[in-house]
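Retry 2 of 3 after timeout on previous attempt. Resubmitting structure tokens to design endpoint.
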């Protein structure tokens, strides 16, 4: 039975395109080395405060390829095999490789930007202290592109179906409800970068198809190109064709997102204000955003600089009476 299962696994892996197979091999190898050598996972996670203030920039890459446990890497690699391989067959091996490379950098950048903005503007610093790890932020990035290339209804765990265009968003919410320990911000960053890539916002970062075709002609690339599973680059890949056929543009996308955010914000404010009026009377109103904070800021004094990383004992006795002691860190898996 084990021999038959191993044969099926080997056969399945050999049919995967090179970029997808390479990602799976890298993640699996790193996970094996991590367990054999007993590496401390916290040294390789995504933690915005450690990246920004102690300059541990390597975490941008290590956080993507490290995983918390066997189930974590197993689920991520199964999703990678399905989504990434379908996308690679449509876009090409080298095109997907460049897309994943930029997805790692851009997803991490948006993750850190949102976490820092939440801290600066709202005083919410939990995301700055969280340790996130895993490849699924990139999977969400790729799932946005894959859903656009293959439109049609998608089943959410066999319970209900949704249009492909909103499938990543629905999956984000459903997964967060089922497993709150997942990194919401990591998955959200992947969806945002995937959407921006589809609408051409990042086109300036990508090399042209003609250059990829030129790379494929190099002698050092012959063994890779000769593989049966290698997908060559074609002029005008599927993503560009689909984008050209779409009536949406990047400017229209930004306008729609801004309008949606305004509508949702106003609706939420009206609901909260109605509840407050019912409880406290007509004179009760929600303050303007300039004078209202949703979360408390960490207490600061003349002897504490904003953004300076201090050991936990430095803050002993400095929290509000009604504020609970902060945990050393909040771990999240992506």
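Retry 2 succeeded. Sequence:
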């Amino acid at each position: 039975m084990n021999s038959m299962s191993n044969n099926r696994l080997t056969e399945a892996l050999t049919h995967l395109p090179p970029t997808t197979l390479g990602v799976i091999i890298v993640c699996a190898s790193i996970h094996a080395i991590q367990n054999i050598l007993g590496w401390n996972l916290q040294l390789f996670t995504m933690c915005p405060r450690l990246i920004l203030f102690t300059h541990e920039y390597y975490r941008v890459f290590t956080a993507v390829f490290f995983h918390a446990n066997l189930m974590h890497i197993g689920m991520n690699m199964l999703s990678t095999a399905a989504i990434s391989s379908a996308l690679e067959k449509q876009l090409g091996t080298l095109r997907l490789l460049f897309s994943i490379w930029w997805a790692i950098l851009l997803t991490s950048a948006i993750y850190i930007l949102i976490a820092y903005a939440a801290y600066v503007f709202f005083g919410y610093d939990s995301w700055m202290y969280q340790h996130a790890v895993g490849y699924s932020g990139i999977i969400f990035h790729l799932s946005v592109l894959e859903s656009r290339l293959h439109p049609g209804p998608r089943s959410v765990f066999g319970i209900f179906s949704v249009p492909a265009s909103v499938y990543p968003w629905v999956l984000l919410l459903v997964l967060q409800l089922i497993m709150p320990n997942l990194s919401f911000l990591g998955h959200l960053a992947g969806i945002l970068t995937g959407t921006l890539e589809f609408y051409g916002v990042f086109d300036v970062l990508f090399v042209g198809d003609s250059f990829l075709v030129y790379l494929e002609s190099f002698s050092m690339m012959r063994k890779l190109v000769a593989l049966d599973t290698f997908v060559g680059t074609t002029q005008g890949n599927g993503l560009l064709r689909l984008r050209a056929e779409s009536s949406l543009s990047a400017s229209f996308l930004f306008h729609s997102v801004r309008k949606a955010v305004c509508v949702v914000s106003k609706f939420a404010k009206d609901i909260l204000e109605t509840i407050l009026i019912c409880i406290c009377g007509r004179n009760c109103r929600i303050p303007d955003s300039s004078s209202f904070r949703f979360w408390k800021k960490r207490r600061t004094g003349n002897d504490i600089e904003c953004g300076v990383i201090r050991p936990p004992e430095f803050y002993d006795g400095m929290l509000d009476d009604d504020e609970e002691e902060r945990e050393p860190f909040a771990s999240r898996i992506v």
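Attempt log closed. The radius of gyration is 23 Å.
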